Amino acid sequence: MNDRNIRHPLVKPDNWGKVYPRVIRAEKDFNQIARGDRILVALSGGSDSLVMLDILAQQHKKLGRSLGISVIAGHVPGEYKGKPIAPAKKLETICADLDVPFVASSSLLSDDIYNDCFKCSLARRKSLFDLAEEQGCNKIALGHNADDLVETALLNIMYSGKLSAILPKQSILKGKLHIIRPLAYVWKDEIVKYSRQRFGRLKTFSCPGAKNSKRLDIRKMLKRLQSDGSPVKENILKAISNPKLEYLPTINVK
Description:
Elements: H1 16-29, E1 38-42, H2 47-67, E2 70-75, E3 79-80, E4 83-84, H3 88-97, E5 102-104, H4 117-134, E6 139-141, H5 146-160, E7 169-172, E8 177-180, H6 188-199, H7 214-225, H8 232-241
Parallel strand pairs: 1-2, 1-6, 2-5, 6-8
Antiparallel strand pairs: 3-4, 7-8
């Protein structure tokens, strides 16, 4: 993507009316943002992180001064086969257009880590935690979306025997830091559409560790189940958001 493809911050994507209200709803449902927050937005360069940054930046312009909220974009750089996994300079340009400070971790992820999703996730989180501490942030915003919540719930049920998913707000380090996920109610297809209209096409890194993952199997299964128009993902999201605990057995089954 060339810098000229970046849309002006005041131009709204066609599906703004679908995406923005869902972000606001998640923020209110889970009390994700409060007065005085200093939020580190994890900016990988993917569509999820770009859309999340864009909406939080615009919220900051409206409410930042009155509520004392500040937003910073935090990037964890990496290389695979000698090439950067994300266009850091372009991300800096986007942040400048949105009037959001851009900071990058001093840690550099390298080739060997991308074949292990768990190790990669752990290393990224550690770098983000360090960045948050350096910048005096009390919250980290991650770009997990509604599809991620649904897929993770099914992965946990099928392969771990646990009825659990991703939390839209999570306390860590004994309450010193909170993780928030503003896109928890937004579906991936809407995020991709929004990002392309807003920022153009950014070349994304194809992670080698994800090509044959269980998550990909779940994704294909959901796509097949929804091919007839059935709202399968929507129903699963409703189920994990409003479980009927009185109808779930609590006896350990071996």
